[in-house]
Write a structure and sequence with these properties.
By secondary structure, this protein is of the alpha/beta class. It is built from six helices and six strands.
């Protein structure tokens, strides 16, 4: 059994003249990223390995969430995750090290949302409903995969067990 955590980057800022890939987090995004890191710990989902898009806002999201885990998580920055499609993200998931039981991937919409939805054919009905409605910034889908190796990952085999958002953490 494997656990896949799909984390959309936190709320970003839109500074004039800044290339999209270099957009930093907004103040709210910095707060949300830290809170999501704490929520991951509370839920018992501390990852064994991380894949992070090379965009600034995803790296900052990871840099603020990961200290909450209280242990250093091996991480790999991936240029190809920026603006990646659902299929491309899945290919990255399939390359995760097999000694990692829980993988977190920090990326972007629409690819993150589409991949999460492809697994949301079964699981927690409330989580499925909320994921289908909106996948906001700093949203986190927790997907249980009945596979022994990451290379076997293939939607729709898997279950959406939880969908956390900054709003669900607030209330």
């Amino acid at each position: 059994m494997r656990r896949l955590l799909l984390l959309r980057h936190a709320k970003s800022d839109w500074p004039d003249g800044t290339d999209d890939a270099m957009r930093p987090l907004a103040d709210r995004g910095r707060r949300d990223a830290q809170e999501m890191g704490k929520a991951i710990v509370r839920a018992g989902f501390v990852p064994d390995f991380a894949m992070i898009s090379a965009a600034l806002r995803t790296r900052e999201t990871w840099d603020l969430a990961s200290p909450q885990f209280r242990k250093k998580i091996p991480a790999r920055e991936e240029n190809g995750l920026y603006a990646a499609t659902e299929r491309t993200i899945l290919e990255y998931v399939r390359t995760a090290p097999d000694d990692a039981e829980t993988l977190i991937l920090v990326g972007h919409n629409p690819g993150i949302e589409r991949l999460a939805r492809s697994f949301a054919k079964s699981g927690d009905p409330d989580a499925i409903r909320r994921l289908e409605k909106k996948y906001p910034t700093c949203g986190l889908a927790e997907i249980e995969l009945p596979v022994s190796a990451w290379k076997e990952t293939s939607p729709p085999v898997g279950r959406l067990e939880m969908f956390l958002t900054p709003k669900t953490l607030d209330g």
